[in-house]
Amino acid sequence: MGQHGVQSLSALTGATLDRLIADPGTHAVCRALMVEGQNVAEKLGVKFAIGVDKRAGGRRRRWARTRPRCCRTSRKGRPGSRIEALLGAVVEMADWVGVDMPIGKSVLALVRQRAEMR
Fold it and tell me: Which one of 13, 42, 47, 81 has the minimum C-beta count within 10 Å?
């Protein structure tokens, strides 16, 4: 899945990337975030050589039991800054170009709430 998607969900759940991908629910959220992010990028003129599912399949093999940095910093009580740079930036660009990102905005709100609770 996309960097902004899996890292955000990993920060929220504490799950490794392989577990996020293996679970149908979190896999669907990650895929939806990828589609939303691709829509934003395409509106900005970015062209993708391969589709979302093929990109996700290639990443799946590399991720194994990896826990992204934003999850590790979240566990140390410092969630948020990497997510703002990854997901927050994409959500902000979506607003600029008029692309709806309901999943991205929801996940970002949850990450921000978690950061405030620490």
Answer: 47
Give the dihedral sign, CA 84/36/7/52: negative
Query: Which one, of 105, 102, 111, lies nearest residue 8 by Cα?
Result: 111
| Phi, psi angles (nearest 5°) of residue 12 | -75, -45
> Quick one: CA torsion of 55, 70, 112, 9, rounded to 10 degrees?
40
pLDDT tens for each residue of the chain, 118 residues long: 455 667 788 888 888 877 888 899 988 998 899 899 999 999 999 999 888 877 766 555 555 555 555 544 444 555 556 677 788 889 999 999 999 999 999 998 988 888 777 6
